[in-house]
Amino acid sequence: MTMKEALQKAGESLTLVEHLKSCKRHEVQDTLSLNNARNMPSYKQNVAKRIRKVESFNIARQELIKEKRAHVKNLRKERDTINRINIQFAKFLRQSVIAPFNDVYADYLDHFIQEEKIKKAHNLSNYNDKVLKGLERVYLTKIESIKNAIGKDHSFEQLISPEDIEMLVQELYSLELYGAALKKANDIEISSENFAFLDKSNNGPMREKVGTMQSQKHYSSSSLF
């Protein structure tokens, strides 16, 4: 390169430098805005993806809350049903115990009274009147207690039949949440009772029953005084 060409190149460089010095500089915000504009499509995609993720989470949470509320509602409904049926069971057991059992017991005492009257008629001179009077006193007391129990028990206004109990049992079995578990528990209980009954049958239940009845008869006569 000749001297002339070198000087020409140097002059052009100086001219370019002077031109650059005279140019207005870009503001920093303009530069950042330009960078953001370049990244905006990717940024918008990420934001949209995050929004969809949050929306999906909220929908799933609302569905779960709705499901749990329905489950709690069913639990309360079944609890109320079980409580209502338990009350009916209690009434049935109470009427079964107070009315029929007490009637049988009254007949049982009446039978002993009649036996004692026969003994007295056959052996009037040697008969101990305390036995008969004691039986009659217990009999009258028992009859009075039966009347009082029935009079105070409002469940006797509408008696519950065994057929009603069977319908209530089936209603329990039909419960969505606990019906199957209740039926299984009852089946196990019935199987256990049947097994116990068979075991007693194999060990002479009649002999045991006769001995128990004799002991009860002796106790009933001797414990009056």
From TrEMBL:
Region feature (Disordered): 206-225
UniProt biased composition (Polar residues): 212-225
Protein name per UniProt: 2362_t:CDS:1
Species this chain originates from: Paraglomus occultum
Phylogenetic lineage: Eukaryota, Fungi, Fungi incertae sedis, Mucoromycota, Glomeromycotina
